[in-house]
Specification:
Layout lengths: L1 H20 L9 H13 L6 H13 L1 H18 L6 E3 L5 E3 H4 L6 H21 L3 E7 L2 H4 L12 H13 L3 E2 L3 H6 L15 H15 L10 E6 L9 H5 L19 E6 L14 E4 L8 H10 L3 E3 L7 H8 L6 E7 L13 E2 L2 H9 L6 E2 L16 E4 L4 E5 L4 E3 L2 E23 L2 E6 L3 E10 L8 E22 L1 E7 L2 E2 L3 E3 L4 E7 L11 E9 L3 E10 L3 E9 L4 E4 L9 E9 L4 E12 L2
Helix pairs in contact: 6-8, 10-12, 13-14
């Protein structure tokens, strides 16, 4: 017994010395992964066991002894027992799937996508004001496209992916739906079997679909390049999922498992044709993630479009970072590639959901060139705020607030908060709450001017507040705070009001606003109305916009008698308006007045 204890102690002591003096260098994280790691370390505590799990994960990454002994062990488990660690699923024929991308958030799929769609709709609206066309390219999840390769009993919830393009379009975003294209594909795999990313064939199919969707697709005879397809050199299969599973394969595995890419696809310049080169002010831009970071998607998109594509893709980052970098060049057409698992970040965290930091940075940096103040009686200034006065601030202090019922909007950035603040001393970070969305903005020393979209999962007369999230020795001067839109009041298409109708059976009232037959819904315009009436607040108000082919309902909830409404047309943009009907629960309003009209966006 003593010999066993001494031997065990010696082994533990010896391996500890090796790991202490000769550890493996931790992998370098960048972008979103780096932010996630920093946040995890800052929140780790002994009480909930998160610190112990962090130490265990660090040891797993840096232990020299563990790494040396684990290689043959994990290889044996993978080859003979079909087992891998808990970070991945091992499916049929050696296919691997990242577990965290298979399992969708606990929220209802449609709710998560609607939150994301609000953010991308605001992005589309901003880029349009800067004369840039915005096309979203959601990348279907590997586990949905190749669901048949998953282990038995694992459900990737394909309905999540199937909702993304339709909901984006419903909120006015041009979105390419790759899911049916990928699911109908019968050729070589579009994804790598042992990697979380796509194959060269997947990139080629996507690039051609993007060019066709955007209208930049050129016929074969007009292109300066041709596709060259070759077989890859024989090498052990590689992939990030193998690394995550802790598995290292060798030459003997080549007969059983496919190489990382079953084919290599490149665009080769044709002799005698004008080469595709950057002009320095390129018309097309691609912003994306690690799916596109190797520039291959940009190259193949340039091949099908016969035009250079500026590449702003960032490995390990969020595609909004690429949009931020691309905008100074003012491209005419910007593709934003987003893998569908990235939409998981719009899940509820407690009582709110967070707008990505990189998207908030984009909104704070770039603003629409023309803004109009929203006419309203209610002040939005916080109780301790006086314009032009220096104010000592601390966490939790309210700079601006508006209670529910005063302003109804569609939640897609048609309404914005403009702030002009001067940080006199210290440092501070603000957070904008709109409905249940949360957008965090750091303040820089000196003057800060930003315009932030009010985002919401669904339309309504939501509350909003601008709150000091963090502050240290900070003094702030509030120069202006106001709600604004990018709507052109001079372009307002007026209407004639019909009489108020009473439906006693449904206990609702309604009134139709009749516009001229030639009135066209501007895609980035809005229906802007100011209400006034005597009596009590309006309850369960809804507005219906109708064209000859379709209609959109906006349920706005309860409104004050002097409420202001701004609603973008969403999928009806470009169509001719046929009718607008406003309705609510009884009692009907008395001396009801509606001002405003259908307005175009300022360009």
């Amino acid at each position: 017994m003593a010999c066993v204890l001494l031997t065990s102690a010696g082994v533990v002591f010896g391996t500890g010395i090796v790991d202490y003096f000769d550890p493996i260098k931790r992998p370098r994280l960048v972008g979103a992964e780096q932010e996630k790691d920093r946040e995890r370390r800052a929140r780790a505590t002994v009480a909930d066991g998160s610190l112990a799990r962090l130490i265990e994960d660090d040891y797993r990454l840096t232990s020299r002894v563990r790494n040396t002994l684990a290689t043959p062990y994990t290889r044996f488990l993978f080859r003979h027992l079909k087992e891998v660690n808990s970070s991945v699923y091992l499916g049929s024929d050696g296919w691997l799937f990242l577990r965290e991308r298979v399992q969708t958030p606990p929220d209802e799929p449609g709710e998560v996508v609607y939150r994301a769609a609000a953010t991308f709709a605001a992005t589309t609206r901003l880029l349009s004001a800067l004369n840039t066309r915005h096309i979203l390219v959601p990348i279907p999840r590997k586990s949905v496209v190749y669901e048949s390769r998953l282990p038995i009993g694992i459900d990737p919830q394909p309905q999540f992916d199937s909702l993304i393009a339709p909901i984006m379009r419903q909120r006015g975003v041009e979105a390419l739906d790759l899911l049916p294209i990928f699911q109908d594909w019968s050729g070589l795999p579009l994804y790598l079997s042992m990697d979380s990313h796509w194959s060269h064939r997947g990139i080629q199919v996507t690039a051609e679909a993007m060019a066709e969707f955007a209208g930049t697709h050129e016929p074969v005879e007009a292109r300066s390049t041709e596709l060259e397809i070759s077989a890859p050199s024989l090498a052990p299969p590689i992939g990030d999922l193998l690394t995550m599973a802790g598995v290292e394969l060798d030459e003997s595995d080549l007969q059983r498992y496919s190489p990382s890419n079953p084919e290599l696809i490149r665009a080769r310049a044709l002799p005698g044709r004008q080469p595709i080169r950057s002009t320095g002010s390129d018309r097309l831009a691609l912003c994306g993630t690690s799916f596109s970071d190797h520039s291959h998607l940009a190259y193949l998109l340039a091949h099908f479009s016969n035009e250079f594509v500026a590449d702003y893709c960032i490995r390990g980052g969020n595609s909004f970072e690429g949009v931020f970098d691309a905008l100074p060049k003012r491209p005419r057409l910007l593709f934003q590639e987003v893998p569908n698992h990235a939409f998981f970040s719009y899940r509820m965290d407690g009582s709110s959901w967070s707008v990505p930091t990189s998207a908030a940075r984009l909104f704070a940096k770039y603003t629409r060139p023309h803004l109009v103040q929203l006419p309203m009686r209610e002040s939005i200034l916080g109780p301790t705020v006086k314009l032009g006065n220096a104010l000592s601030i601390e966490g939790g202090q309210i700079l601006a607030q508006l209670n529910p019922g005063h302003v109804a909007h569609s939640g897609d950035g048609v309404l914005e908060l403009e702030a002009n603040l001067t940080l006199l001393t210290g440092n501070a970070r603000l957070v904008l709450h709109s409905a249940k969305s949360r957008m965090s903005i750091p303040l820089q020393p000196g003057e800060n001017h930003f315009v932030l979209p009010l985002l919401a999962q669904e339309p309504g007369a939501h509350e909003l507040s601008l709150v000091v999230e963090q502050a240290r020795d900070a003094k702030l001067q509030v120069n202006s705070l106001r709600l604004v839109t990018g709507l052109d009041n001079a372009s307002s298409a007026s209407f004639q009001k019909g009489p108020i109708q009473i439906d006693t059976a449904e206990r609702r009232w309604s009134q139709t606003l009749n516009f001229q037959e030639s009135t066209t819904l501007d895609r980035f315009g809005a229906l802007a109305l100011g209400l006034s009436s005597d009596g009590s607040a309006l309850s369960e108000v809804s507005i219906k916009l109708g064209t000859s082919d379709s209609e959109v309902d906006f349920d706005l909830g309860n409104l004050n008698t002097d409420a202001v409404i701004t609603l973008s047309p969403g999928p009806l943009g470009g169509e001719r308006l046929q009718s607008v009907r406003i309705s609510g629960s009884l009692p009907a309003p008395t001396l009801f007045n509606i001002k405003g009209g259908l307005m175009k966006a300022i360009r």
